Amino acid sequence: MKFLVGGSGSGRAVYAVKGDDAVDLTALDPAVGDDLMALITNPALAKSVVAKVEGAPTVPVASITPALPVTRPGTIICLGLNYTDHIKEGGYDIPDYPALFMRGRNSIMAAGAPLVRPSCSDKLDYEAELMFIVGKGGRHIAEADALDHVFGYTVFNDGSVRDFQRKTHQWTPGKNFDDTGAIGPFVVTPDEVPAGAAGLKIESRVGDEVLQSSNTANMIWSVAQTIATVSEYTTLEPGDLIAMGTPPGVGHAKKPNPRWLKPGEVIEIEIEGIGICANRIVDEKDMPSKVAAE
């Protein structure tokens, strides 16, 4: 099943996507709620509502404004350095343990929303990534059982402010600017893709300019290995988000000059079988003040 969380004239809802059309699952059963958490935590509810999709009224997918698939994820964990050629272009040594960092909620936003270049830097970069949503939580999850803990897969753009990323070995500043991590719009269940979402084409582009083009088969650490590794030190919970790192071709490594994202451009991240995450780049000075909005 392919899901889309988003808003329309009737408010935000969870939709089942069938081609260019979508069925409002929240209208079929209000227990579904307005993001994926109810379906993630209640497999029986998910099974019952999906059974009602056939023959239900549809709306065009194009009429739905995407929202985050999980409104308030508990933990957002990201892998760095998970494709060998990306490691080489960044000048790093190939690690024997994944480079892990965390993002805060203010740093993420939905596909289609403005991706904000901060006022303090013009070095905004893109990173095409596979992301998965934890379905069943746990600690010390065995690699052999790990894929049973995945609810679904989505697309992530790990927008990175490179000069701030380099200010510290921990990467935290450059990976946590507000509204730089775009997610979605679609979430596909594991039965829709190969095991661990391996073997899928992954690409980033601006217009006709292809920036990255690779395959998720080239990841060093698979989804299953990542779940086993992360759950060794922390308890994973339903709705947690884990991003799987980016392939080569990022902007800071372009020769002879870096390729930074500019206001007005639309960056697209596409993963085969999952969908396209597209966001327009906007200068922070042109965005409404969050302080004023509060």
Structure write-up:
- This protein is an alpha+beta fold and 294 residues long.
- It folds into two domains: 2-66, no CATH class; 76-293, Fumarylacetoacetase-like, C-terminal domain (Fumarylacetoacetate hydrolase, domain 2, Alpha-Beta Complex), CATH 3.90.850.10.
- Helix content is 14%, strand content 32%.
- The chain is built from seven helices and 20 strands.
- The strands form four sheets. The chain has a seven-stranded mixed beta sheet with strand order 7-6-18-11-12-14-8, with no helix packed on it. Strands 1, 2, 3, 4, 5 and 15 form a six-stranded antiparallel beta sheet that branches.
Gist of the model:
The chain has 294 residues and is of the alpha+beta class.
Outline the fold blueprint:
Elements: E1 2-8, E2 11-18, E3 21-24, H1 25-28, H2 37-41, H3 43-50, E4 59-60, E5 65-66, E6 76-80, H4 84-89, E7 99-102, E8 108-110, E9 115-117, E10 124-125, E11 128-134, E12 150-158, E13 160-161, H5 162-165, E14 181-183, E15 186-188, E16 201-206, E17 209-215, H6 223-233, E18 241-243, E19 266-271, E20 275-283, H7 290-293
Parallel strand pairs: 6-18, 8-14, 9-20
Antiparallel strand pairs: 1-2, 1-5, 1-15, 2-3, 3-4, 6-7, 10-13, 11-12, 11-18, 12-14, 16-17, 16-19, 19-20
